[in-house]
SDR family oxidoreductase
Amino acid sequence: MTASTRRVLLVTGGSRGIGAATVRLAAQRGDAVAFSYFSDAVSAQTLVDQIESSGGQALAVQADIAQEADVLRLFQTVDERFGRLDALVNNAATIAPMTRLADMDAARIARLFATNAVGPMLCAREAVRRMSTQRGGAGGAIVNISSRASRIGAPGQYIDYAATKAAIDTLTVGLAKEVAAEGIRVNTVAPGMIHTDIHAAAGDADRIAKVQSAIPLQRGGEPEEIARAILWLLSDEASYVTGACLDVAGGR
């Protein structure tokens, strides 16, 4: 696959965890991959260097997807570097320490919704503007990253985070129907308990060990397992799949 024929994939929040696993696997499979990162420039550059040293193409762009100006700059940078966009993975998200709703302030709730719901909608908007056949694009695919928390509700933990992910589920269903005739498929992957640093960010680094006995597969998942599901949904093997939510949660 030559540089000019590589699919161009954009992953938000791609410097660590599920995002980084998706970036690596996509590059290994021959995609040109752009990804955003919020603040960890060292990890982002390390990932770019790893991919380029193996003959791949990668681009890291600092961006806060909660800020529309940053979203616009992110997509413009991809335009300038690669000239097109074929797929988007809406992965970037944030979480806050576990607590009950009665103890949450408005600033926390607004921050989570800005990053986890508004940001992905803005990114999806920009992707559609580029990929829609009605706007001169060649079609494409979007995968939004939700969470099993969106249906469990996460009571006593982070119902604000769960609610933002429920917004992602609804975005997927509505947008999939809205752009199906424009050559764009839109799907969701809903991870369960995955070995990433999100649990530490929520204040419970050992959470998977505490709950894995309740998971039918008796373990937490690995970021690479989520990445494989994401890339399947982006591939032609999933050509008749849109508006779907794929649970990758060990049966829980």
